[in-house]
Automatic annotation (TrEMBL):
The lineage of its organism: Eukaryota, Viridiplantae, Streptophyta, Embryophyta, Tracheophyta. Signal peptide: none annotated. PPR repeats lie at residues 7-41, 42-72. One of its GO terms (molecular function) is mRNA binding. This is Pentatricopeptide repeat-containing protein.
Amino acid sequence: MGEVQLDVYSFGIMIKGCCEANDLIRALEVLALLEEVGLSPIVVIYTTLIDGCCKNGHIDRAKELFFKIPDLRRYQFKQRCLRLLLLPDKLHQLNLRDAKWKLLVSRK
């Protein structure tokens, strides 16, 4: 019997499970392992982690992950992700010092 080859979707499932179990540390470890084996996270992995960070009060880490999403110029898509992920009561927790972050949050 052969080895199971993990792909980016397998890692995404593990990350989602960790986030749902409120085990953000393990979710971030799985992200690091994904990158270590030479895979690149897809947008859904980032949004899952951002959601997990926000739900656990790690807003700064959520911002870091948000800016790691490839092609930041697609701000309209990212803004939609942000609005879906962050409940309105979470938005006031963000320290919006970063000009890019302010732009992304304020665009309609």
